Amino acid sequence: MSTTEPASTCPIHEFNHYAELPFGEKLARYDDLRDEAPVIRNEFANGHYIVTRYEDILKAYQNAKVFSNTAVTVFNPNPTFRWIPQMLDGTEHKQWRKQLNPLFSPKNVEGLEDKVRERAVSLIKSIAAKGTCDFMQDFALQYPSFIFLELMGMPFEDLDKFLHWEDEILHVSGDAEETARRRGVATVELTEYFRGLIDERRAEPKDDLISKAIAFEIDDAPATQEDLESFCILMFMAGLDTVTATLGTTFLYLSTHQEDRQAIVEDPELIPSAIEEMLRAFAIVIPSRKVLEDTEISGCPIKAGEMVCLPLNLATRDESVYEDAKEVHLDRSPNNHIAFGAGPHRCLGSHLARRELRIALEEWHRYIPNYRLSPQSHPTESGGQLGPNGNIILEWDV
Ligand code: HEM
Predict the structure, then answer these.
(1) pTM tops 0.85, yes or no
(2) What's 139's DSSP letter?
(3) How far is the C-alpha of 85 from the C-alpha of 98, rounded, in Å?
């Protein structure tokens, strides 16, 4: 139970964001919260507020002086660590982003095109002849991991080691104590791995993100070793599971909506707008902020020190902004969604993510156009973001 006084003007719930539910149920639950009130007091975790409507959510993201990134999960309002750049505020954050942004510009990301496509094709070809696959295990987890290794300059032979850490840190579920222990062990191992890699790149710089970050200057001094490690950890958290989860929701949707799947096969030019629509309709990220001064959202007073949760799906499925918001229209235009966030912390990797998704959809539909969801599939979702955990079995005729 919460130790703080809930505000009287907003309904009170005990909504476990993290619970494991059949895929889609959580999204429906969020939609209900939006219909109920603009702000909900949630007694789950340490107690926090959920903001449910587009305008209020956007305003909070854009007001970083009041809505701070120094704490970003509702479980932990006073973290003793800081992931970089996500948990930085103010000028320190600006300095990191100024040096990072050019590395993730559309032009720079274009340079990865051939390698990304090569990897997508080789993975898809290895699957195509089988007539079936476990989509998350066989494709959605491996593909972004490869790209991450490439970007960070990590050796490809480390893929299995890396997939293991990814599983232990981002996907392990069950008994809370055991989960925390395993996550802790894997985080220590991953940090040590990054520490070694940073040392290697200091001695012998290469053309990769780690070598470039080593040369960053913050407050006129080189970025510290500790900050570089926190940066690597954040890149791992931000760049992998997001693409995996978006691939999961996209292929789950297309494999159960045959007309839309067929539309993509017949007209691959539809893919970029289809991706935007998947990002909007199933926006997976659920960021939170720490309130730094007493404030008020749509009549609900919120005290300094409280956490507010700003789920992006609540903004991107708001009927007052998007017509027919809960329906998927692959050719929706305009589709000015905020699935990559808004304000100073808007996703650094959005151009890369879009390219990864586009290449995956292009190549998949070229080699495996006629797939469907096997009746054995029972996808669920759990954890800090939306998106299927696994169990998406696809089948096709060979
Ligand atoms: C479909 C895939 C992706 C989605 C939906 C997504 C979404 C987001 C969102 C919503 C945020 C803002 C979080 C907040 O406000 O607290 C964010 C931040 C971030 N994302 Fe992404 N992301 C994706 C892929 C990537 C990729 C591929 C990378 C890099 C390789 C990346 C790197 C980052 C970083 C570094 C931040 C922190 C930015 C900051 O705090 O200044 N993301 N992402």
Answers:
(1) yes
(2) I
(3) 11
Domains of the chain in sequence order: 12-396 (1.10.630.10)
The token pair that represents 1 in the structure block: 């139970």
Task: Pick the atom of ligand 1 nearest to 96's CA.
Answer: 41
Rounded distance from Cα 229 to ligand 1 centre (Å): 18
How many Å lie between the centroid of ligand 1 and the Cα of residue 238? Answer: 5
pLDDT tens digits for the chain (398 residues)? 344 444 457 999 999 888 889 999 999 999 999 999 999 999 988 899 999 999 999 999 999 999 999 999 888 899 988 999 999 999 999 999 999 999 999 999 999 999 999 999 999 999 999 999 999 999 999 999 989 898 988 888 888 888 888 888 877 666 667 777 888 898 899 999 999 999 999 999 999 999 999 999 999 999 999 999 999 999 988 888 899 999 999 999 999 999 999 999 999 999 999 999 999 999 999 999 999 999 999 999 999 999 999 999 999 999 999 999 999 999 999 999 999 999 999 999 999 999 999 999 999 999 999 999 999 999 999 888 999 988 999 999 99
> What is the sign of the dihedral through the CA atoms of 155, 159, 163 and 165?
negative
**Residues whose beta carbon lies within 6 Å of some atom of ligand 1:** 72, 85-86, 97, 234-235, 238-239, 242-243, 246, 284-285, 287, 312, 339-341, 345, 347-349, 352-353
Please name the amino acid found at residue 202: R
